[in-house]
Amino acid sequence: MPITLYHDVPSTNCDRVKIVLAEKGLPWDGIWVKLAKMEQKRPEHLQLNPYGKIPVLIEDGKVLFESCIINEYLDEKYPDPPLQPKDPYMRARGRILVDYFLNYLHEPYWTLRGEMIKKNPDERDTKLIAESQKEIAGRLQYLEEALGDNLFFLDDYSLTDIAMLPRFPRLQQYGVLPSAALPRLGAWFERMKQRPAVQTVL
Fold first, then answer.
1. Which among 77, 103, 121 is the end of a domain?
2. Can you tell me the distance from the alpha carbon of 13 to that of 133, in angstroms, rounded to the nearest whole number?
3. What is the pLDDT of residue 118?
Protein backbone atom coordinates (compact mmCIF):
# COMPACT_ATOMS: atom_id res chain seq x y z
CA MET A 1 0.00 0.00 0.00
CA PRO A 2 1.25 3.52 -0.74
CA ILE A 3 2.35 5.85 1.99
CA THR A 4 -0.26 8.33 3.17
CA LEU A 5 0.89 11.63 4.64
CA TYR A 6 -1.34 14.00 6.55
CA HIS A 7 0.21 17.39 5.89
CA ASP A 8 -0.18 21.09 5.22
CA VAL A 9 1.66 23.78 3.27
CA PRO A 10 3.57 25.58 4.62
CA SER A 11 4.68 23.40 7.52
CA THR A 12 8.30 22.97 8.53
CA ASN A 13 7.47 19.71 10.31
CA CYS A 14 5.83 18.27 7.22
CA ASP A 15 8.61 19.53 4.98
CA ARG A 16 11.14 17.41 6.88
CA VAL A 17 9.26 14.27 5.97
CA LYS A 18 8.59 15.36 2.39
CA ILE A 19 12.31 15.90 1.81
CA VAL A 20 13.12 12.38 3.01
CA LEU A 21 10.36 10.91 0.84
CA ALA A 22 11.83 12.78 -2.12
CA GLU A 23 15.38 11.67 -1.33
CA LYS A 24 14.19 8.07 -1.20
CA GLY A 25 12.05 8.39 -4.32
CA LEU A 26 9.03 7.12 -2.40
CA PRO A 27 5.55 7.88 -3.78
CA TRP A 28 2.94 9.07 -1.33
CA ASP A 29 -0.66 10.19 -1.17
CA GLY A 30 -1.42 13.38 0.68
CA ILE A 31 -4.35 14.25 2.91
CA TRP A 32 -4.52 17.97 3.54
CA VAL A 33 -4.92 19.07 7.14
CA LYS A 34 -5.40 22.83 7.24
CA LEU A 35 -3.64 24.23 10.28
CA ALA A 36 -5.25 27.65 9.80
CA LYS A 37 -8.63 26.02 10.33
CA MET A 38 -7.38 23.95 13.28
CA GLU A 39 -8.26 20.74 11.47
CA GLN A 40 -5.43 19.00 13.32
CA LYS A 41 -7.52 19.30 16.49
CA ARG A 42 -10.56 17.54 15.08
CA PRO A 43 -11.57 14.32 16.86
CA GLU A 44 -10.84 12.16 13.83
CA HIS A 45 -7.31 13.53 13.62
CA LEU A 46 -6.73 13.22 17.36
CA GLN A 47 -7.44 9.51 16.96
CA LEU A 48 -4.36 9.36 14.72
CA ASN A 49 -2.17 11.73 16.72
CA PRO A 50 -3.19 12.59 20.29
CA TYR A 51 -0.88 15.63 20.15
CA GLY A 52 -3.14 17.17 17.55
CA LYS A 53 -0.25 17.85 15.19
CA ILE A 54 1.00 17.03 11.73
CA PRO A 55 2.60 15.27 9.97
CA VAL A 56 1.07 11.86 10.41
CA LEU A 57 2.29 9.03 8.22
CA ILE A 58 0.36 5.83 7.62
CA GLU A 59 1.80 2.80 5.86
CA ASP A 60 0.20 -0.64 5.79
CA GLY A 61 -2.28 0.53 8.40
CA LYS A 62 0.48 1.54 10.80
CA VAL A 63 0.35 5.09 12.14
CA LEU A 64 3.39 7.21 12.95
CA PHE A 65 3.75 10.81 14.05
CA GLU A 66 6.50 13.28 15.01
CA SER A 67 8.55 14.23 11.95
CA CYS A 68 12.01 13.18 13.15
CA ILE A 69 10.71 9.79 14.29
CA ILE A 70 8.95 9.30 10.96
CA ASN A 71 12.18 10.09 9.14
CA GLU A 72 14.18 7.56 11.16
CA TYR A 73 11.54 4.95 10.33
CA LEU A 74 11.70 5.77 6.62
CA ASP A 75 15.49 5.59 6.58
CA GLU A 76 15.55 2.25 8.35
CA LYS A 77 12.82 0.72 6.20
CA TYR A 78 14.09 2.18 2.93
CA PRO A 79 17.88 2.35 3.39
CA ASP A 80 18.74 3.47 -0.14
CA PRO A 81 20.17 6.05 -0.08
CA PRO A 82 21.22 5.90 3.57
CA LEU A 83 20.57 9.08 5.52
CA GLN A 84 22.06 8.11 8.89
CA PRO A 85 25.65 7.26 9.77
CA LYS A 86 26.43 3.70 10.81
CA ASP A 87 28.47 4.79 13.81
CA PRO A 88 26.28 4.87 16.96
CA TYR A 89 28.09 7.90 18.35
CA MET A 90 27.51 9.89 15.17
CA ARG A 91 23.83 8.98 15.21
CA ALA A 92 23.57 10.13 18.80
CA ARG A 93 25.50 13.28 17.93
CA GLY A 94 22.99 14.01 15.20
CA ARG A 95 20.09 13.68 17.62
CA ILE A 96 21.80 16.05 20.05
CA LEU A 97 22.23 18.70 17.36
CA VAL A 98 18.62 18.40 16.24
CA ASP A 99 17.36 18.52 19.81
CA TYR A 100 19.43 21.65 20.42
CA PHE A 101 18.14 23.34 17.29
CA LEU A 102 14.48 22.50 17.77
CA ASN A 103 14.25 22.90 21.54
CA TYR A 104 16.88 25.39 22.69
CA LEU A 105 15.97 27.83 19.94
CA HIS A 106 12.25 27.24 20.44
CA GLU A 107 11.39 30.18 22.70
CA PRO A 108 13.15 33.02 20.85
CA TYR A 109 12.15 31.54 17.48
CA TRP A 110 8.46 31.52 18.31
CA THR A 111 8.66 34.94 19.93
CA LEU A 112 10.15 36.31 16.73
CA ARG A 113 7.71 34.41 14.54
CA GLY A 114 4.79 35.81 16.52
CA GLU A 115 5.94 39.37 15.89
CA MET A 116 6.74 38.85 12.21
CA ILE A 117 3.77 36.73 11.18
CA LYS A 118 0.89 37.52 13.47
CA LYS A 119 1.20 41.30 13.56
CA ASN A 120 0.98 44.04 10.98
CA PRO A 121 4.26 45.91 10.42
CA ASP A 122 3.07 48.98 12.33
CA GLU A 123 2.07 46.82 15.32
CA ARG A 124 5.37 44.98 15.74
CA ASP A 125 7.58 45.41 18.77
CA THR A 126 10.84 46.37 17.08
CA LYS A 127 12.84 46.08 20.30
CA LEU A 128 11.55 42.55 20.93
CA ILE A 129 12.27 41.62 17.32
CA ALA A 130 15.87 42.84 17.59
CA GLU A 131 16.36 41.04 20.91
CA SER A 132 14.95 37.79 19.51
CA GLN A 133 17.08 38.01 16.38
CA LYS A 134 20.18 38.54 18.49
CA GLU A 135 19.26 35.69 20.85
CA ILE A 136 18.69 33.24 18.01
CA ALA A 137 21.92 34.23 16.27
CA GLY A 138 23.79 33.75 19.52
CA ARG A 139 22.36 30.30 20.04
CA LEU A 140 23.12 29.36 16.44
CA GLN A 141 26.82 29.87 17.19
CA TYR A 142 26.93 26.39 18.71
CA LEU A 143 25.76 24.92 15.40
CA GLU A 144 28.16 27.16 13.47
CA GLU A 145 30.99 25.61 15.48
CA ALA A 146 29.54 22.10 15.27
CA LEU A 147 29.43 22.33 11.49
CA GLY A 148 33.02 23.51 11.32
CA ASP A 149 34.61 23.01 7.92
CA ASN A 150 32.35 20.08 7.04
CA LEU A 151 29.88 20.21 4.18
CA PHE A 152 27.19 18.69 6.39
CA PHE A 153 26.69 18.30 10.13
CA LEU A 154 27.70 14.64 10.35
CA ASP A 155 30.26 14.86 7.52
CA ASP A 156 27.84 13.22 5.08
CA TYR A 157 24.36 14.51 4.25
CA SER A 158 21.93 13.06 6.77
CA LEU A 159 18.64 13.31 8.62
CA THR A 160 20.32 15.86 10.87
CA ASP A 161 20.64 18.32 8.01
CA ILE A 162 17.10 17.59 6.85
CA ALA A 163 15.66 18.11 10.33
CA MET A 164 17.13 21.60 10.61
CA LEU A 165 16.72 22.85 7.06
CA PRO A 166 13.01 23.78 6.88
CA ARG A 167 13.34 26.51 9.48
CA PHE A 168 16.22 28.23 7.71
CA PRO A 169 14.09 29.96 5.05
CA ARG A 170 12.06 31.41 7.92
CA LEU A 171 15.17 32.52 9.78
CA GLN A 172 16.11 34.33 6.60
CA GLN A 173 12.62 35.78 6.25
CA TYR A 174 12.68 36.97 9.87
CA GLY A 175 16.01 38.77 9.50
CA VAL A 176 18.27 36.39 11.45
CA LEU A 177 20.10 35.30 8.30
CA PRO A 178 22.29 36.04 6.47
CA SER A 179 24.71 36.91 9.24
CA ALA A 180 28.40 37.73 9.03
CA ALA A 181 28.77 35.90 12.35
CA LEU A 182 27.37 32.67 10.85
CA PRO A 183 29.19 32.18 7.52
CA ARG A 184 29.37 28.39 7.74
CA LEU A 185 25.66 28.03 8.39
CA GLY A 186 24.98 30.44 5.56
CA ALA A 187 27.09 28.38 3.16
CA TRP A 188 25.45 25.17 4.40
CA PHE A 189 22.01 26.66 3.76
CA GLU A 190 22.95 27.60 0.20
CA ARG A 191 24.38 24.12 -0.35
CA MET A 192 21.23 22.46 0.94
CA LYS A 193 19.04 24.51 -1.38
CA GLN A 194 20.85 23.01 -4.37
CA ARG A 195 19.72 19.47 -3.64
CA PRO A 196 17.02 18.33 -6.10
CA ALA A 197 14.91 16.74 -3.35
CA VAL A 198 14.98 19.96 -1.36
CA GLN A 199 13.99 21.98 -4.41
CA THR A 200 10.85 19.88 -4.83
CA VAL A 201 9.72 20.78 -1.30
CA LEU A 202 11.01 24.21 -0.29
1. 77
2. 22
3. 86
